[in-house]
Amino acid sequence: MLLDLSKRALFSQALDLTGCGRALRASRIWQGVLILNYHRIGDPQRSMLDRNLWSATQDDFDYQVGMAAKNFDVIGLDDLEDVLTHRRGRYVMFTFDDGYQDNYTEAYPILKAHQVPATFFLTTGFLDASQIPWWDDIAWMVRTSKLSALDVNRWTSSPVPFDQPHREGAIHRLLNVYKELPGESTEEYVEFLAAALQTGRCPKSVADNLWMTWDMVREMRRGGMSFGGHTVTHPILANLSSQQQDWEVAECKRRLVEELGEPITAFSFPVGGRSSYNSFTRTALETHGFRMAFTYHGNYCRPGHQDLYSISRTAIETDIDQRQFRAVVTLPQLFA
Ligand SMILES: [Zn+2]
Predict the structure, then answer these.
(1) Residues with Cβ within 5 Å of ion ligand 1?
(2) pTM value?
(3) Which of 117, 238, 258, 300 has its CB 3.0 to 4.6 Å from that of 34, i.e. a possible disulfide?
(4) Beta partners for 313?
(5) Hey, where are the domains in the chain?
(6) What's the CA-to-centroid distance between 41 and ligand 1, angstroms?
(7) More confident residue, 195 or 88
(8) From the CA of 331, how far away is ligand 1's center (Å)?
(9) pLDDT of res. 58
(10) 234 C-alpha to ligand 1 centroid (Å)
């Protein structure tokens, strides 16, 4: 069972006020691995990019890592397979997707201070060529456009207003259109938006210092962090042909192995919902030696979890306050 946001807030408050949360954390009410997923750490308020990518402020992340380290066994990637298949207990794992540079500048110092490992899934093409990802490109266009709405067009069934207070909703809606498109139409769609919103594409200079460098990645690896694949260009894999999927998986792995000089066996699906990958994705992962794949379905992994190509993670987002975070890790059956 999953609770909607308002119920989450209410129940998490009750957990705290009744003192139940503390008792439950000390009990064995759940067993398994709760894998938390983050994207960016910091304050999104002034960003022209997609603010939904920020998962926590530095202060909240510091609290979350400290709280997990105090109450649970926090494991790294190397322990996961053994824990999933053989061990009983309550484990928490921290993961990050995409490879944003604040993972190094903001998250890594906090993880180090708490001596907690984390696993980072990298979109290799972003690190290699300082690309603006499609979600940040579209968000930037909506934020900088002088227009107040997008007229009816072949991509959206009705006009999309994006003056305040509609702006965040408009970004969300235009990103959802992208996610449904076959891979060969996505570039045409983004080009259409650039023309229709009269902004052009987000300037490449915005991507300066947006992604980690490979030197940062190697430093974090020496510091006990782990790395996995997240494709080259961050497409919705299920919208690609089997050959395109194979290339995204193989080339991402090749670059990671080249830069890190060690086997890479873990992968997380871009976007990560059930419709974002398919059987061709799994074939490509098996073919290229990925042994584990992480989803974005929510929930946690029970002991004896068998399918290593469908490992559940739960999203941590900036609207999760400290109380709600305590609820997520205390009762993941309800909150994760
Ligand atoms: Zn991603």
Answers:
(1) 97-98, 270
(2) 0.92
(3) 300
(4) none
(5) 36-130+210-297+304-309, 134-205
(6) 14
(7) 195
(8) 26
(9) 96
(10) 6
**SS3 (DSSP) at 40:** strand
Dihedral, CA atoms, 235, 118, 283, 269, nearest 10 degrees?
-30
Whole-number Å distance, alpha carbon 102 to ligand 1 midpoint, is 15
User: Are residues 276 and 270 in contact, defined by beta-carbon separation less than 8 angstroms?
Assistant: yes
Alpha carbon of 83 to ligand 1 centroid (Å): 25
Per-residue pLDDT reduced to its tens digit, 250-288? 999 999 999 999 999 999 999 999 999 999 999 999 999
pLDDT at position 335 is: 80
Give residue 96 CA to ligand 1 midpoint distance, Å: 9
- Alpha helices by DSSP H, the chain: 5-17, 20-26, 58-71, 77-85, 102, 108-113, 124-129, 134-144, 167-180, 186-196, 214-222, 242-260, 279-287, 322-330, 332-335
